[in-house]
TrEMBL record:
<feature type="domain" description="HTH cro/C1-type">
    <location>
        <begin position="11"/>
        <end position="65"/>
    </location>
</feature>
<dbReference type="InterPro" id="IPR001387">
    <property type="entry name" value="Cro/C1-type_HTH"/>
</dbReference>
<protein>
    <submittedName>
        <fullName>Helix-turn-helix domain-containing protein</fullName>
    </submittedName>
</protein>
<dbReference type="Pfam" id="PF09856">
    <property type="entry name" value="ScfRs"/>
</dbReference>
<dbReference type="InterPro" id="IPR018653">
    <property type="entry name" value="ScfR_C"/>
</dbReference>
<dbReference type="Pfam" id="PF01381">
    <property type="entry name" value="HTH_3"/>
</dbReference>
<dbReference type="GO" id="GO:0003677">
    <property type="term" value="F:DNA binding"/>
</dbReference>
<dbReference type="InterPro" id="IPR010982">
    <property type="entry name" value="Lambda_DNA-bd_dom_sf"/>
</dbReference>
Length: 434
């Protein structure tokens, strides 16, 4: 578990807030009051066992003492420093900076978050421009009209003695091409504006579904009751589901989530999660449930549930097309185009019904490490001799500290991946290589 130089300060603040005497807390965790005093003044490091004992005695999670509320602030500052070569050894004094100048630290982290959001917008537009047929057609129209205008204007400018009839033809061509260019540009701008200002901000049905789910932290609490509503009632009047196709996807998702809630009741699943940890194979065996069902359940648990850890999830069909994208900090699946071919997801797709587990490092300004579980389920359709549909899923959990196995370097998609010399690269990246 990560250790902060301010862990002792947080222990002291929590103890003081609970009005617990130092001697009483020390006695409760089996150490001397003098040693606890050194810890509270950040003069002694705290081991895992002692930290957990102190957290239990103070009624908080160990991470609240080891990282505190400043954890996100530290991450933002480290990400800002990673974008410059001038950080140097000053990173070692990041907690001192936060402690002395919390306001400026918050401003810098907020600016970095804004820069990161804008970078993702640029990446999404670049990715969309490479995949969206409407954008491609419009850009080709713009280039064609500009080329025609430039050629015609060059002829008029460079030909001194041109017959009136031909001059009229060239002028008429310029007028027509100008109208074509302005019309195409107007259509293109309108399309981009619609993408930005629409209720969902998204065009594809899958994006509308994922936006609705993200707004609910990917958890549908109504389905956890003894009498859950019908799927049609749950999605009625939802503004994010602007299209009929999105509503159809939402109905299928709600029906599937309701079946998962019945098979893996929330209270029992939370108890098993606390006892076994987020190991999908053990949880599937405990409940006799399919692995893919456990994957989805782990990725859609409500915040604050005992034992819950942040989990990302991606799913694809037999063609490799992503059919579900549940992002997690440090991992943002591509919205358009193909994903990284080095994902364990595709390894599982080629090995149905065989578990795949790997530690992965996802490329980014601050590389994020995850423990990835992948599984491919097979669904026969149309009788014994009918086709077999495959659905692969990849669950991403925080990589436990101290794991020593070699991590697999992956990205989001080739177009926005900065890794140099990647053996799986399909096309050049729009980002500078690292």
């Amino acid at each position: 578990m990560a250790r902060s130089a301010l862990t002792g300060t947080r222990i002291r603040e929590r103890r003081t807030a609970l009005q617990v005497k130092q001697a009483d807390l020390a006695r409760g965790v089996g150490i001397s009051a003098a040693y606890l005093n050194l810890i509270e003044h950040n003069r002694r490091r705290v081991g895992d066992d002692l930290l957990e004992a102190l957290a239990r005695a103070l009624g908080v999670e160990p991470v609240a003492l080891s990282e505190g509320a400043e954890a996100g602030l530290f991450d933002g500052l480290r990400e800002a420093a990673a974008g410059t070569e001038k950080a140097g050894p000053e990173l070692e004094r990041i907690e001192e900076f936060v402690g002395r100048f919390p306001g400026w630290a918050a401003v810098l982290a907020d600016r970095q978050a804004r820069v990161g959001a804008l970078e993702r917008v640029v990446e999404a537009y670049a990715e969309r421009m490479a995949q969206d047929p409407f954008l491609l057609d419009n850009l080709h129209e713009v280039l064609s009209a500009v080329t025609s205008l430039r050629s015609t204007a060059a002829i008029l400018a460079e030909t001194e003695d041109i017959e009136p009839e031909w001059r009229s033809r060239f002028l008429r061509t310029m007028a027509e091409e100008s109208l074509r260019l302005s019309g195409t540009a107007e259509s293109l701008v309108g399309y981009l504006d619609e993408m930005e200002t629409a209720e969902t901000g998204l065009a594809a049905p899958l994006e509308q579904l994922e936006t609705w789910l993200a707004g609910r932290d990917w958890h549908l609490a109504e389905l956890e009751t003894d009498a859950p509503p019908a799927p049609e009632v749950l999605i009625e009047g939802v503004p994010e589901l602007a299209s009929a196709a999105a509503r159809e996807l939402a109905l299928a998702h709600v029906a599937r989530a309701a079946a998962e809630a019945r098979a893996l009741p929330l209270a029992a699943f939370s108890d098993a999660l606390t006892e076994l940890g987020p190991e999908p194979g053990l949880l599937a065996a405990r409940f006799g449930a399919p692995v893919e069902m456990v994957f989805r359940r782990l990725a859609t648990l409500p915040p604050g549930l005992p034992g819950r850890v942040p989990a990302g999830l991606v799913a694809c069909d037999g063609s490799g097309t992503l059919t579900l994208r549940r992002p997690v900090p440090g991992f943002a699946p591509p919205r358009f185009g193909a994903a990284c071919p080095l994902w364990p997801l595709y390894e599982a797709l080629a090995r149905p019904s065989q578990p795949v587990r790997a530690v992965i490092d996802v490329a980014g300004r601050l590389p994020a490490r995850f423990l990835a579980y992948a599984w491919c389920a097979q669904h026969p359709v149309g009788g014994f001799d009918g086709p077999v549909l495959r659905e692969a899923m990849m669950l991403l959990l925080p990589a436990p500290p101290g794991r020593t196995e070699r991590a697999r370097a992956v990205g989001s998609s080739c177009r926005i991946c900065p890794r140099a010399g990647c053996p799986g690269r399909r096309e050049p990246s729009i980002l500078p290589e690292r």
